[in-house]
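Beta-ketoacyl-ACP reductase
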Amino acid sequence: MLMARSVLVTGGNRGIGLAIARELAAAGDAVAVTYRSGEPPEGLFGVRCDVTSTADVDAAFDKAEAEHGPVEVVVANAGITKDTLLPMMKEDTFTDVIDANLTGAYRVSKRAIKGMLRMRRGRIVLISSVVGTMGSAGQTNYAASKAGMIGFARSAARELGSRNITVNVVAPGMVETDMTAVLDDTYQEKIRGNIPLGRFATPSEIARVVRFVASEDAAYITGAVIPVDGGLGMGH
């Protein structure tokens, strides 16, 4: 019988992150989630953490490891948007998004690697976006942060492969979350018109792909960017 793996999902209290956490827990893993505000989700071990703080990230790992043992799977999902057209974008609007999304993934991955190197195994999954390869007007900051994850992951995959640590990117398209629910209906219909499958994804559809990438079945996949976007970004 396989032992439950210790898993940490950042931004795991809602939306895609919560769906990922619940999917991995259902697969038998011992899952901890980080959250920045609100309350931890019911049935999961929650740790308050802001991924823009190295001290917070270190403390979150310490608590997760005290509860479940060394983290074997980490999912860097926490992120923010601050959409503004480039001519009006203030520098801190750009750097805040880079710090939370891309540098946050670096902080989380770097801390996770410490234990993984000792165990000589591990799974790092970064949640990027179709926007990272296609671009999106008003999202130069967000697109740059999500595109940066790809170069980061592929470089880390080359560094860590000899230690049986895989690093992969899952790139969702449009997903039914609180973030997309606020979009104007007309705009939503316009986006659906560009998606070959004609609909948004559910968070669980993203979560199931993450579950696969984190599983033993994906042991020979590393440095990959896996789109889960209904065909929206094909060719990019």
